Amino acid sequence: MIEARIAPSVGSLPAAQWDALAGGNPFMSHAFLSAMEDSGSVGPGSGWSPAPIVIADAAGTLASALPAYLKSHSQGEYVFDHAWADAWHRAGGSYYPKMQIAAPFTPATGPRLLLADDALAPALLRAAEQVCADNGLSSAHATFIAPDGKTGAIPASTNSSARYPRASARTSARSARRRSRGWKSAP
């Protein structure tokens, strides 16, 4: 049976084990995320409560991890969802607290599912869903996910319109609206 748990912080977990899962991404590294905790950028009073979700193997070694935070606001995410929060509030709900799976204050792509074995991804995601359900969180958000799901690298041969047809259609429609208003599209 696979068992997931919430650790009190990234800093409470073994650095070498966490870094082995992070695959060399500097913004997912134990040093970076622990520095966020140690500096007070995340933690009490910041609106970012560390809640990393981890699964260990039979020997107790980290086998997968999710850099999760319980959020009481949308600051520091570089995703401006204030309109969603307002709409949720007007509909009678509470958008906060929510789960944010991210590198805090860092709009850089990278892995968000830190896995020694890809087969653990479903269990890790189910654990995140369960944390939301058990704690009355409105939702879970994962931001700046690497297109390849692992390193954050986008292969040179990648055709983003083929891989992301909806994004391409939205971008094309947005560009047409901007041109009609005299705005220039980004290259």
Strand content: 5-15%
Radius of gyration over alpha carbons?
A: 18 Å
Q: Categorize the overall geometry.
A: globular
Could you tell me how far the N terminus lies from the C terminus, measured between alpha carbons in angstroms?
50 Å
**Poorly predicted tracts of residues:** 151-187
User: If helices are DSSP runs of H or I spanning 4 or more residues, what is the number of helices?
Assistant: 6
- Biggest sheet strand order reads 1-3-4-7
Query: Main beta sheet, described?
Result: 4 strands, antiparallel
Secondary structural class: alpha+beta
Number of DSSP strand runs: 8
Q: Output mean pLDDT.
A: 78
H and E order = EHHEEEEHEEHEHH
Helix content: 25-40%
What attributes does this structure have?
alpha+beta; disordered C terminus; four-stranded antiparallel sheet; single chain
What does this structure look like?
The strands form 2 sheets. Strands 1-3-4-7 form a 4-stranded antiparallel β-sheet, sandwiched between helices. A 4-stranded mixed β-sheet has the order 2-5-6-8, with helices on one face. By secondary structure, the chain is of the alpha+beta class. The termini are far apart. Residues 151-187 have low confidence and may be disordered. The protein contains 6 helices and 8 strands. The protein is globular. The protein is 33% helix and 15% strand.
